Amino acid sequence: MKTMLKRGLPLILCASALCSSAFGIDKPAIHNGSWWKNKSGAYRDGFVSGYKSGALHSTGHTAMMNKLATADIVAGLDALYKDFRNRNITVEDALPYIADQLSGVPDDKLNAELLHLRQTAVATEEEQ
């Protein structure tokens, strides 16, 4: 009996782990407006702060994002995602747009950029 437990228990544990991982895997979250609106204010601040820190270490990324206040970026994302047409735009794609907006890029360029983001988001959603 002890030998059976010694051999069988690891097998049972391994099988249960494989089954739970096979059935428990969800698709990774898409970081878009629907995801963003469900996060707390503290989470949003932390996310943007982390993004800014990562931008400091990213090769070829402009330092513009780090000159902007985290609260302004969070407010910009909140405003962007209030429009239902923008909910499929990923946060990663929206952040450079918000940085452009806060940096005073002219409205005609911002409008073109936003239209492109919406079209890209729709195309990405249809591919999934």
Describe this structure in words.
- The longest helix has 23 residues, at 2-24.
- This protein is mostly helical.
- Helix 5 crosses helix 6 (91-102) and helix 6 packs antiparallel against helix 7.
- It has seven helices and no strands.
- It has one domain.
Summarize it.
The chain contains seven helices and no strands. The protein has 128 residues and is mostly helical. Keywords: Signal.
Helix and strand topology:
Layout: H1 2-24, H2 33-37, H3 41-57, H4 64-67, H5 70-82, H6 91-102, H7 107-127
Signal peptide: 1-24
Keywords: Signal
Number of separate domains: 1
Number of strands: 0
Structural class: mainly alpha
Which spans have pLDDT < 50 for at least 5 consecutive residues? none
Radius of gyration: 22 Å
Q: State the distance separating the first and last CA atoms.
A: 51 Å
Primary descriptors:
single chain, 128 residues, mainly alpha, 7 helices, 74% helix, globular
